[in-house]
Design a protein that fits this description.
This protein is α/β, with parallel strands linked by helices. The protein has one domain: 3-Layer(aba) Sandwich (UDP-N-acetylmuramoyl-L-alanine:D-glutamate ligase). It has helices at residues 25-36, 53-64, 108-115, 129-136, 158-164, 180-193, 231-246, 249-263; strands at residues 2-6, 10-14, 19-23, 42-49, 68-73, 80-85, 91-97, 119-123, 143-147, 170-174, 196-200, 206-209, 215-217. Strand 6 and strand 7 (91-97) form a beta hairpin. The mean pLDDT is 96.
């Protein structure tokens, strides 16, 4: 089986400790998927990197984790996410610089990789809407998933989900309990479209929408939260691994919860030593 993350691979810049780590939603997902899926499966990414020193750190991570990389090199800057953390370990989003991803669109080579994939995991946030649209216009016969995040700043908001709901099978959303009206809207959309929409709620657990009843799963308790960066990406990897094997949603939610719990107990979305 071939699993492909299509989206952002870049650098997480921790401003509170003055340290850079390779990261980005797509890289985080792919590294965790590589660990979870059978060794016989191929796990890779489709992305674009700049020509700056930050790109070399991302390339090193792709090599270290033996990811199949379809990477376009574009003159300019690699994407950087600036991160701080609360004393509780909760991630503070400072700012994001999309770099070359802002103007990047998939071409023929990338579409071939997407078409040959059994699982495609795409990502949508405001700075890469054009990239995302080009991905969703690419054909693939397998399971398609999308990480919609919290939909903040995305043109059309939940309208973007409605626009593409016939072109994916599983959608992931990182929300909180105060987003009850949005969750209700997503539930109606899931039921009418026959899609599975998964909502993670941090310490309040997760739920899957689309059936007659919501399927809920508690978060896995942890002794100490160090860093919530990448928890949702690990959750998605855990969920999709289990779902591809069993098609059982309760077990898939539980698998995602376990992976997210493991991530928040360390710095970064995956183990990494800067050299």
């Amino acid at each position: 089986m071939r699993i492909t993350g299509v989206g952002d691979c870049g650098v997480d810049r921790y401003v509170n400790i003055g340290s850079d780590r390779p990261g980005g939603i797509t890289l985080n997902f792919a590294v965790n998927a590589k660990r979870l899926f059978p060794a016989s499966d191929s796990v890779g990414v489709v992305t674009a990197l700049g020509t700056d020193p930050e790109a070399q750190q991302v390339r090193r991570a792709l090599e270290v984790f033996a990811l199949d990389a379809c990477v376009s090199t574009i003159e300019g800057a690699t994407s950087i996410q600036y991160i701080d953390r609360q004393p509780t370990g909760e991630k503070i989003f400072v700012r994001y610089e999309e770099g070359v991803l802002g103007e990047y669109r998939v071409g023929a080579r990338e579409r071939e990789v997407i078409a040959a994939s059994d699982v495609v995991m795409a990502v949508l946030y405001s700075q890469v809407e054009g990239f995302f649209h080009s991905v969703m216009e690419s054909n693939s016969p397998g399971l398609r998933a999308v990480d919609f995040g919290d939909l903040a700043g995305v043109t059309g908001g939940v309208g973007s989900v409605e626009r593409y709901v016939e072109r994916f099978h599983v959608g992931f959303f990182g929300l909180n309990s105060a987003d009850a009206p949005l969750i209700d809207h997503l539930e109606r959309l899931a039921r009418s479209s026959g899609r599975i929409l998964v909502v993670t709620l941090g310490a309040d657990g997760s739920m899957a929408l689309g059936g007659r009843e919501r399927i809920e799963c508690a978060a896995v308790p942890v002794p100490c939260v160090v860093d919530t960066t990448g928890a949702g990406d690990a959750f998605a990897a855990g969920f999709l691994h289990e779902y591809c094997e069993t098609r059982r949603i309760p077990e898939s939610l539980a698998a995602g919860a376990r992976e997210a719990a493991a991530v928040v107990q360390r710095l970064g979305a995956f183990p990494w030593e800067n050299s």
